[in-house]
Specification:
Helices cover about 35% and strands about 20% of the residues. It is α/β, with parallel strands linked by helices. It has 2 domains: about 230 residues, Nucleotidyltransferase, domain 5, CATH 3.30.420; about 270 residues, Nucleotidyltransferase, domain 5 (2-Layer Sandwich), CATH 3.30.420.40. Strand 14 and strand 15 form a beta hairpin. Helix 12 packs across helix 13.
């Protein structure tokens, strides 16, 4: 059949989203399956791996049943949330405990127990700073806090893996992990693409429990789960990419030849990534960034990337909304109205309206579980700086949205320093990127052109495009039209706002 389709599923923190795609990346069908998040204690963030599997199963089955009679599914592509850790029974495939989410901080004390020399070795080998965000400490916690789990893992009766590894096990019965996801566990030697014996010993993780590392387009066992619709049973898994990596690949399809792709994925947290040469990777640490593996083709060298992770961006707005009994959309409207009012007053040369104090800024530093890149430091807690009796909910809402843009701007500056060049444009994706006002705010504060693809599902689409390219299903092409947001704020005013933000961040960190 000429009409060859790909089923793509993006398994994210809050939901799984499935798409049935044709060669022009048109969505012939889509499925959205929410997934619950559990916070049983302060700093603990976990999910039910079985619920995640059921959400992906629903996406696959509904999409498989939606395939037109004049078409065929050429393969399945997966993208997934990263760093989240699962331990499961090797025979039954059932999880032996909760999935520890990437936001989980319960292993903070375990991280602090490492001495400086070991922490430096961990970063040198894995490319990642020692932090509870990554999977290694989570794996150790699961083994040490589940009866009999460590002994079972040493004999291979309990398996460890990230979300992609667990889904592949459930779909096809193979215990493998895609190399980009493996690079986020903090157990992989990013120079060789293999598990590091040194890191396994430092984190006390048994090799027998770990999956085999494979390339991003690895063709292993086809889907054989009896829970999968007949329409998809026997189909190959043509690509697996971590969500941010898949979005980076998808964005790169819109890039002019020879240009460097820098992208920001906005979500619960945010990820800023850029494909990088080895020389830039060597400068990553000094600029607060990490080096990671973006993807690997079957017969090609590793593609490396610089990355900075923001722990709280969209979740900051959600927290503020829930605290005041409002919706995130209501806060966005308040923030946009206040921002427009200030801009109008400034351009007219009139005095600011009520609740606005000239030359002062309210800063919300969202260090709920510490600050990620480029700081990678813990803090006593989140901080609101610059409040006065004139501060109301609109000011706090604006500060929350500004914190998203300002944190991203800090990381874009760090990418520039590592690459020793200025990236005049940044591609954006993710749920919050649908907000035009937020993207204009990012353009103004970062003083860069912000480019948004018309395709709102770049993680799923990027994984599908990668698999299609690698296996000759159809040629990858641009993933839709783009909308561009150019800076409108004078550079001097942007610099003043950034200076206030940096002063607040340093005050928050000094309270550690």
């Amino acid at each position: 059949m000429a009409n060859r389709l790909i089923v793509a599923v993006d398994q994210g923190t809050s939901s799984s989203k499935g798409l049935l795609l044709d060669a022009q990346f048109a969505e012939l069908a889509s499925v959205h399956a929410p997934v619950a998040l559990q916070t049983p204690a302060a700093g603990w963030v976990q999910q039910d791996a079985t619920e995640i599997w059921q959400s992906v199963l629903r996406c696959l089955n509904e999409l498989g049943d939606a395939v037109p009679t004049d078409a065929e599914v050429a393969g399945i592509a997966l993208s997934n949330q990263r760093e989240s850790a699962i331990a499961w029974n090797a025979k039954t495939g059932e999880p032996i405990g909760p999935m520890l989410g990437w936001q989980d901080r319960r292993t903070q004390s375990a991280a602090a127990a490492f001495d400086q020399r070991d922490a430096e070795r961990i970063r040198a080998v894995s490319g990642l700073p020692l932090d509870p965000m990554f999977s290694a400490l989570k794996f150790a916690w699961l083994l040490d806090n589940t009866d009999g789990a460590r002994a079972a893992a040493e004999s291979g009766d309990v398996l460890l893996g990230t979300v992609d590894s667990y889904l592949r096990f459930k779909l096809a019965g193979e215990h493998v992990i895609e190399i980009g996801n493996a690079s986020r566990t903090q157990l992989l030697d990013v120079a060789t693409g293999e598990w590091s014996i040194e890191l396994l010993e430092l984190f006390n993780i048994p090799m027998a429990a770990l999956p085999r590392v494979v390339n991003s387009a690895y063709l292993g066992q086809p889907v054989n789960s009896q829970e999968i619709t007949q329409a998809l049973r026997g189909k190959p898994i043509v690509a697996v990419l971590a969500d941010s990596h898949a979005a980076l690949f998808g964005q790169s399809l819109n890039l002019e030849p020879g240009a460097t792709c820098v992208k920001a994925t906005l979500g619960t947290g945010s990820s800023i990534m850029a494909v990088a040469e080895q020389s830039a990777l060597q400068r990553a640490t000094s600029n607060g960034l990490v080096s990671t593996i973006a993807w690997q083709s079957p017969l090609a060298p590793l593609v490396n990337a610089l990355e900075g992770n923001i722990l709280s961006s969209g979740s900051t707005v959600v927290w503020l909304a829930e605290s005041f009994g409002r919706s995130a959309n209501e806060l966005a409207e308040m923030a946009e109205a206040l921002h427009a009012n200030r801009a109008s007053s400034a351009s007219a040369g009139t005095s600011p309206q009520q609740h606005v104090v000239e030359s002062e800024f309210v800063n919300l530093v969202p260090s709920f579980g510490g600050l990620g890149a480029p700081w990678w430091q813990s803090a006593r807690g989140a901080m609101i700086d610059g409040m006065s009796l004139a501060t109301g909910l609109p000011e706090l809402a604006l500060a929350a949205f500004e914190a998203i843009a300002l944190q991203i701007g800090d990381l874009l500056d760090a990418v520039d320093a590592a690459n020793e060049s200025f990236a005049g444009q940044v591609f954006v994706d993710g749920g919050p990127a649908s907000n035009d006002w937020l993207l204009q705010l990012l353009a103004d504060l970062s003083q860069r052109l912000v480019v948004r693809s018309a395709n709102a599902s770049l993680s799923a689409v990027g994984a599908a495009a990668f698999g299609a390219r690698e296996h000759g299903i159809w040629a990858s092409s641009a993933v839709g039209a783009t909308t561009r947001f150019a800076p409108k704020l004078p550079a001097e005013l942007a610099a003043n706002r950034i200076a206030s933000w940096h002063a607040a961040v340093h005050r928050a960190l000094s309270e550690r």
